[in-house]
Amino acid sequence: MLGRDSALARALSKTRQVFSGRLRSLLSGGHVSSETWESLEELLIEADVGPAIAAELVEALRERVMRGELRGDSLQAALEESMVRVLRAEERRADEEPRLLTVVLVVGVNGSGKTTTVGKLARYYTLRGHKVLIAAADTFRAAAIDQLRIWADRAGVPVVAHQPGADPGAVVYDAIRACRARGHDLLLVDTAGRLHTRYNLMAELRKVAEVARRNVHRAPHEVFLVLDATTGQNGMAQARSFREAVGLTGVILAKLDGTAKGGVAFSIARELGVPVRFVGTGEGLEDLVEFDPAAYVAGLFERR
Ligand code: GDP
Question: By CB neighbour count within 10 A (0-12 exposed, 13-18 middle, 19+ buried), where does 203 fall?
């Protein structure tokens, strides 16, 4: 528990440095004025909390202070509470329904950290007692398949792959059969992520999902979007297209350790209505932590 929280706290250190120091000087002294509210809103927006949520958080605090319910020196605690509430609204527990085969689709644009994250997930589920297999359904580039194999080896799980250029649906079909034949209970499907104008990524992803649906009861059971946290609000438009095309059961926020804009988790929860499920905290196999709203918000604030 402690390990998990401190990995999250470390990943949030860049965001915290920007956010927390300024917050403290803003709230020190306990005196609040109209400038305090403006600066607080700006600070939240800079951390990439999203303008609408920032305005809403600040307005709620301001009203409580005006009504005499809240004193200047308890503002930070009140802000923390409301931030946790925004994230909790979309919190969903991991789906632990027992089944013979769980299919997890991993989607995201190239460069987001998708391959790395598939490796980390393979490790994560293996440690939790699953027998994992990976389907290399990004068949576009040979290099992508090779890279996936490297991560699968690190995680100690097998890969089902076809030749570059093969039909991704056929790879998924074979991988499902391999799971059944060899007794694997969790299939991680790595999908393509190229955004070319003359190529319909979303149509391909829908086909892949359809193959899973036709062959495994209620599959895909999870659809995780890997989002590069360093792209901040720009990732939101991307996330919407994936959500529309294949539906999403969760977002994995990769490279959180590389950004001062960790506030994007709030927009994902509120504007996308999809829970953040995991956070990438580094480049290693085990640098993946389950998302926890309270620990996340605590990581944004400096502890005194
Ligand atoms: P893909 O093209 O989406 O499959 O992306 P890759 O998995 O190849 O990752 C792209 C780059 O991001 C690589 O250099 C990874 O090491 C790096 N990366 C992925 N996840 C994380 C993370 O959580 N933290 C950091 N710092 N780097 C990451």
Answer: exposed
- 142 with 161: CB under 8 angstroms? no
Rounded to 10 deg, the angle between the 168-182 and 201-215 helix axes is 30
Question: How do residues 79-110 score in pLDDT, each as one tens digit?
Answer: 999 999 999 988 876 666 778 999 999 999 99
Pocket test for ligand 1, best of 116, 141, 151, 276 (most atoms within 8 A of CB): 116
Would you state the pLDDT for residue 97?
75
Q: What spacing in Å lies between the alpha carbon of 228 and ligand 1's midpoint?
A: 8
Which among 146, 147, 283 is the best mutation to test ligand 1's pocket, defined by most ligand atoms within 8 Å of the CB?
Answer: 283
Q: Report the alpha-carbon distance of residue 93 to residue 32 in Å, rounded.
A: 38
Report the range of poorest mean pLDDT among 45-59, 83-97, 218-232, 259-273: 83-97
One DSSP character per residue, 1-28 reads -HHHHHHHHHHTHHHHHHHHHHHHHHHT
Q: Tokens in use for 33? A: 């004025």
pTM as predicted:
0.93
Residues 10-31 pLDDT 10s: 999 999 988 888 888 888 877 8
Which atom of ligand 1 is nearest the CA belonging to 118?
7
The DSSP secondary structure of 121-152, one letter per residue, reads: HHHHHHHTT--EEEEEE--S-HHHHHHHHHHH
Going by CA atoms, what residue is nearest to atom 12 of ligand 1? Answer: 113
| Average of per-residue pLDDT values in the chain | 92
**Ligand 1 center from residue 150 Cα (angstroms):** 14
